[in-house]
């Protein structure tokens, strides 16, 4: 009996010691090695140093931006990092409306995202220089120009995020439900504006600017609530607006300022080699992927023409009338507003003109005495 009691006691003690060792071993494992969700600094990581990057954009999934630029860009991040970077796309405004995307990134709802600075009036005043009435043929060129301006002066407007690239998009056109050939034809039209300096351009021409989400434009033009829209060809095509408005004036309307930003904490939590990969891939994703470069934009224009859109190029004399109005009531007005606000508007515009000249981009509305 005593032998059996001693044996049972020995077994109980041994089991207790074993349980203590197992418990101690589990407690000593870092959280990131247990479940792959959080590292020592709280950044998202996998069992072997993997990181997850959530990418957000308001572009619709079927758009050329998502299909030809963002999806290939995210794939490049995964490939070049040998799988250490895992990406999750949130297309079509899945995390919020277009005008919310800067805050979506800054606040950490997504790790990386594409935002439109011109949709938040007054927040990035100097960046509106990228919205000037110029004619940029491809997004790859627009990013080269925007990145140069970002490095020189515009970085000061984005202290809350890690800016990866900035651009002024490609040229916008004046798309309408009825033909427009002269300034007189524009008077009284209600035109959806993308914001920024395009609002001033619409007003200067004698039309009424109306701001509404792109998703509402189709029905609004179809029902006559608005008469047209100022936007770039890729978005016009992506939202099937050629089905309700098949006239376009080819003129130098510029576009909006936008770019790719990364959440600061997400960026700073990355190892240097992954930061390097992200920097290389996102510096100019349009050149990297070939999406929305000059040839791609030309292809979209051909598709629109094939769908029945009638493009009207202003005769030289009429184009000069429009550009003179833009020079005085948009460009000069913007410079004066910046200077009155204590911002270097004149210096910024001159920098921008110099970058345009480097890339052979025309700025027909540039005031000659500035």
What do these coordinates show?
The protein is of the alpha/beta class and 370 residues long. The chain has 2 domains: 147 residues, D-Maltodextrin-Binding Protein, domain 2; 145 residues, D-Maltodextrin-Binding Protein, domain 2 (3-Layer(aba) Sandwich). It contains 15 helices and 11 strands. Strands 7-6-8-5-9-11 form a 6-stranded mixed β-sheet. Strand 6, helix 7 and strand 7 form a beta-alpha-beta unit. The protein is globular, with a radius of gyration of 27 Å. It starts with a helix and ends in a 12-residue tail after the last helix. The N terminus is likely disordered.
Span between termini: 107 Å
Give a short account of the largest sheet.
6 strands, mixed
The low-confidence runs, each spanning 5 or more residues with pLDDT under 50, are: 1-45
Shape: globular
Which H/E pattern describes the elements? HHEHEHEHEEHEHEHEHEEHHHHEHH
Summarize, please.
The chain has 15 helices and eleven strands. It has 370 residues and is an alpha/beta fold. It is globular.
């Amino acid at each position: 009996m005593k032998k059996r009691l001693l044996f049972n006691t020995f077994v109980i003690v041994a089991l207790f010691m074993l349980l203590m060792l197992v418990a101690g071993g589990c407690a000593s494992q870092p959280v990131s090695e247990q479940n792959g969700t959080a590292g020592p600094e709280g950044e998202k990581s996998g069992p072997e140093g993997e990181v997850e990057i959530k990418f957000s954009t308001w572009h619709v999934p079927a758009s050329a931006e998502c299909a030809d630029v963002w999806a290939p860009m995210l794939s490049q991040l995964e490939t070049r990092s040998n799988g250490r970077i895992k990406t999750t796309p949130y297309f079509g405004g899945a995390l919020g409306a277009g005008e919310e995307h800067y805050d979506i990134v800054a606040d950490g709802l997504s790790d990386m995202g594409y935002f439109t600075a011109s949709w938040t009036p007054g927040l990035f005043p100097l960046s509106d220089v990228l919205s000037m009435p110029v004619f940029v043929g491809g997004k790859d060129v627009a990013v080269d120009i925007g990145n140069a301006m970002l490095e020189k002066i515009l970085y000061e407007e984005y202290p809350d995020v890690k800016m990866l690239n900035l651009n002024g998009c490609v040229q916008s056109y004046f798309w309408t439900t009825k033909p427009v050939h002269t300034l007189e034809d524009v008077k009284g039209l209600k035109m959806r504006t993308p914001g920024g300096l395009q609002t001033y351009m619409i007003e200067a021409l004698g039309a009424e600017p109306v701001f509404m989400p792109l998703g509402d434009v189709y029905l609004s033009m179809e029902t006559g609530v608005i008469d047209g829209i100022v936007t770039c060809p890729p978005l016009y095509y992506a939202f099937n607006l050629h089905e309700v408005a098949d006239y376009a004036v080819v003129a130098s309307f510029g576009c909006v300022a936008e770019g790719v930003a990364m959440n600061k904490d997400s960026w700073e939590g990355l190892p240097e080699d992954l930061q390097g990969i992200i920097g290389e891939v996102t510096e100019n994703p349009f050149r990297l992927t070939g999406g929305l470069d000059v040839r791609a934009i030309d292809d979209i224009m051909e598709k629109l023409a094939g769908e029945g859109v009638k493009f009207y190029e202003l005769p030289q004399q009429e184009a000069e009338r429009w550009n003179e109005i833009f020079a005085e009531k948009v460009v000069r007005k913007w410079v004066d507003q910046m200077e009155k606000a204590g911002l270097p508007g004149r210096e910024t515009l001159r920098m921008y003109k110099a970058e345009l000249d480097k890339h052979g981009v025309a700025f027909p509305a540039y005031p000659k005495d500035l």
